[in-house]
Amino acid sequence: MIIEKKGMGTSVSKLVKDPSSLVLVLISFAVLCLFVIYPLIYVVALPGATDWTTFFSKSRYGTALLNTVVSSSLSALTATVCGFIYAYSIHYSNIVGKKFFRFIAFLPILAPSVMTGLAFLLLFGRGGMVSQTLKAWFNVELDLYGLPGLWIVQTISYFPLAYMTITGVLRSISPNLEIAAQNLGARGFKLFRTITFKLALPGVINAFLLVAINCFADFGNPKLIGGNYSLLAVEIYGEIINNEPGLASVMGIILVIPALLVFVIQSKLLSKGSYSTITGKPVSGLNRVKTSRKTDILLFIFNSIMALFILSMFAITILFAFTKNFGRDNTFTLSHITKMVFNPSSPAVLNSLVLSLIASLLAVGFALVLAYVVVRKPFPGKKLLDFTAVLPIALPGTFVGLALIVAFSNGPIMLQGSAVLIIVAMLLKQMPVGYRGLTASFKQVDKSIEEAATNLGADSRRTLTTIVFPMLQKTIVANFVYAFMKNMNTLSTIVFLITPKWVVAAVSIFNYAETGTYYWAAAVAVGLMGTTLATLGVMKLIFRSKVKIFDF
């Protein structure tokens, strides 16, 4: 009987004997220490006593913190509820038009979240189409600026994120559990409450978590819609503009606390029960318990209202992009698109495409390396590397951007104003998602396949490129598509990092909307969505069945 030696000494010895693995581990540690650990330490150490005193002595900052918690919690709650009802109607009802509703849920993901704020202004702002109609016909003044408008906009913006998270859980629930409960007398709401909802609870809580984190970090919508309802993300932006990085860092640290609390609450709730749906019994041929006819009608009405909101926002944006000034001069024109999308002097859309492609490729490549060394290679510090790799996803994007700008605007490494810092910010926010997905995929692949390649003389580099990559190709492509779409639409993470040379589409939309040139903002939004769709179309042609863009 051969006993395998374990311990730190053995791990280090094996790593030294495999130079390729050693290089990958050292590179992984170096990248994460430089772009995650160093900026976080810097931003935490930067504020002085004066900065902390200023924050706690001025009531406006306390008000901004309270507003952030209240608005983010409300938006996350309603977005999660809407996402659950929408997903439930897709998987548990007999409503017509399910494919259409799935497509509608995809649309907001295609557009930057700030476009929702823009469309809301065009519809419900003081000069918006709906507002003007209500004033002309009923003499009603519509004022949704502040919390009401922000609540609506963030709910619409982030409900698809909740929907995607919950729909995966509902899809995986075994029908035989519900059928067994029905045979024991559970019907209607009791069946839903005691079986379906309890089994879906992990997805519901995760959806709330993800939406809350995005709402905490949201900058564009509060700036456009918030009015005098100030939020921490907006205050941080103002302090950076005023060259007060210490005070901005204080607010960034405070902003992280609610996000971390959400994670703690999530883990506590999920630790109190079992949510397993794998029973070991065959489930093929079983049909899921469906809702009643009356419930179908209510679910169809709800989905139709959500679809109407989303389609209206896209329609008004397109109308402004292709008319001279919709509502005042409805003459069709391509001048806005030509000037904002195809003009070399306005490279925002092209910059977004180039930077997003580079950042997404690097994010997926780095996630693949990280997952490979963490799952397959023994080395000291593995848990620390794993924790550091997923840390950025728990941090609001606003805080990540703030940490990068204050850490690399002076000191030994100067990256301020460069495209490198924008790419790093995009990479850090999207890499953890790919890393988690690839880690799970690695654990499903038998290690003996790679060991066989090693026995035949392949080193880690060759094993990774010739064995591992082909087996995980679908997961890699799916994560690249996700990272690309998120990077094309990101604003909060990079709003501090852009320069006139490297302005991106989401920032341009925000800038034009804030100055009231809505037709230019709409043109950039349409150009961004068109470019994203075209790129995804090319990917679909290249990878074919490996890319499922509309499978939600």
From TrEMBL:
<protein>
    <submittedName>
        <fullName>Iron(III) transport system permease protein</fullName>
    </submittedName>
</protein>
<dbReference type="InterPro" id="IPR035906">
    <property type="entry name" value="MetI-like_sf"/>
</dbReference>
<feature type="transmembrane region" description="Helical">
    <location>
        <begin position="413"/>
        <end position="428"/>
    </location>
</feature>
<keyword id="KW-0813">Transport</keyword>
<comment type="similarity">
    <text>Belongs to the binding-protein-dependent transport system permease family.</text>
</comment>
<feature type="transmembrane region" description="Helical">
    <location>
        <begin position="519"/>
        <end position="543"/>
    </location>
</feature>
<feature type="domain" description="ABC transmembrane type-1">
    <location>
        <begin position="65"/>
        <end position="266"/>
    </location>
</feature>
<feature type="domain" description="ABC transmembrane type-1">
    <location>
        <begin position="349"/>
        <end position="537"/>
    </location>
</feature>
<feature type="transmembrane region" description="Helical">
    <location>
        <begin position="247"/>
        <end position="265"/>
    </location>
</feature>
<feature type="transmembrane region" description="Helical">
    <location>
        <begin position="100"/>
        <end position="124"/>
    </location>
</feature>
<feature type="transmembrane region" description="Helical">
    <location>
        <begin position="144"/>
        <end position="170"/>
    </location>
</feature>
<feature type="transmembrane region" description="Helical">
    <location>
        <begin position="387"/>
        <end position="407"/>
    </location>
</feature>
<keyword id="KW-0472">Membrane</keyword>
<feature type="transmembrane region" description="Helical">
    <location>
        <begin position="353"/>
        <end position="375"/>
    </location>
</feature>
<feature type="transmembrane region" description="Helical">
    <location>
        <begin position="21"/>
        <end position="45"/>
    </location>
</feature>
<feature type="transmembrane region" description="Helical">
    <location>
        <begin position="494"/>
        <end position="513"/>
    </location>
</feature>
<keyword id="KW-1133">Transmembrane helix</keyword>
<dbReference type="Pfam" id="PF00528">
    <property type="entry name" value="BPD_transp_1"/>
</dbReference>
<feature type="transmembrane region" description="Helical">
    <location>
        <begin position="297"/>
        <end position="322"/>
    </location>
</feature>
<dbReference type="InterPro" id="IPR000515">
    <property type="entry name" value="MetI-like"/>
</dbReference>
<feature type="transmembrane region" description="Helical">
    <location>
        <begin position="191"/>
        <end position="213"/>
    </location>
</feature>
<feature type="transmembrane region" description="Helical">
    <location>
        <begin position="65"/>
        <end position="88"/>
    </location>
</feature>
<keyword id="KW-0997">Cell inner membrane</keyword>
<keyword id="KW-1003">Cell membrane</keyword>
<keyword id="KW-0812">Transmembrane</keyword>
